[in-house]
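Worked example (supplementary).
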Amino acid sequence: MIRTIAFDADDTLWPNERHFRSAEAFFRDLMSAYHDAEWIQERLFATEMRNLAHFGYGVKSFVLSMIETAIELSEGQIQGRDIQRLVDLGRDMLAHPVEPLPHVQAALAELQSDYRLMLITKGDLLDQRAKLARSGLDAYFPIVEVVPEKDVPTYRDIIQRHGLAPETFLMVGNSVKSDILPVLALGARAVHIPCPDTWIYEHVDDVDATAFATLEHLGLLKAWLEKEAAPPQSAQN
Amino acid sequence: MIRTIAFDADDTLWPNERHFRSAEAFFRDLMSAYHDAEWIQERLFATEMRNLAHFGYGVKSFVLSMIETAIELSEGQIQGRDIQRLVDLGRDMLAHPVEPLPHVQAALAELQSDYRLMLITKGDLLDQRAKLARSGLDAYFPIVEVVPEKDVPTYRDIIQRHGLAPETFLMVGNSVKSDILPVLALGARAVHIPCPDTWIYEHVDDVDATAFATLEHLGLLKAWLEKEAAPPQSAQN
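After joint prediction of all chains, the assembly is encoded as:
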């Protein structure tokens, strides 16, 4: 019986990757005098991967990776005003409105009376807290965990720290790698809600798609819970 | 009677500001062709203050502020390789060894059997977690809170969330603004351990220094606790 439902934030509750995709388009355009689009994108991704261990996830890390890639691709010829445009782009990304995805608000409002809701997100602490506040969804989440990495030790720690039994814990998110597989490994439940924008870094090959449920959107979660994870009293009916 | 002791991290458990001070010296040197040292420092501080609401605390935010200031002070003439040196400087700052300050390790080892120890720090989540791991002090802290801002609502939330009575809670730190005043406002206790490097942003004027204790170093905390905040059984002796 599920008692706690934890939600991923970016691209599960509100759009996020699309802002990075459009920032990348801006970056490819800015650097188009130096290289072709495909090579620019490839070098940016390589810089991001190299920087992940140093700078972590989030907009500030992404801006630093764009700046480094711009210097590399221009062989140091990039102009100060163009670097400034990348910093400004980051500031804009951090300030953009946070609109919940369709069905999200209604689903949370419906679920909050029967389940303890939790938000588990990786990324930049200040940025994630600010987005939650701007989304207007903060009242639904008595527990908010901003973690450096969403892996098995992180989920184990959260489940233990809040005194939960894994079989009563459900994670809902758009990333098979971060939201689904580590949770299943702990004996807890997971529901995948795919997002077309999912970052290539989050892609996983050879997934056993029968091991977890996939729903089209959050509005379908309540019906899934009633069918697949019915509370004990339903069994008595 | 104090049961929980929370510690600030940067410049309370390990040196931090001195790394920023030496990064600033590097920056003033890098920009010395354009302006004099005092003006460079003043503009950098102004950029940092302007960026705090957007980028928050921490090394990544500091690097972005150095880059913006460099572009401003050079009127866009700064070279790509010099911008790269600022990014590299940030990566170095994030990787530097974390050596506990004198007396810290022994004090924590002594206190951990009688008190629940907690770490409360603001800054970048990944950076702070990584520093705690590198310091070797992580085993002393069953509870670690990395918060976006250390103000009254933040401390109230932490105290409530962990089910603590304010009068049993002691905060220890080097910043009067962040570690002492908001804690006293909640009816909890606070001990100030000054650090000569404290960031100018953390300076507070007109403090009533009789409202809290000031100790020279953490090795003096146990004796202070025995004298000033003795457990009830001492009163019976």
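Two points are worth noting when inspecting this output. The radius of gyration of chain A is 20 Å. Strands of chain A lie at 4-7, 116-122, 143-147, 169-173, 189-192, 213-214.
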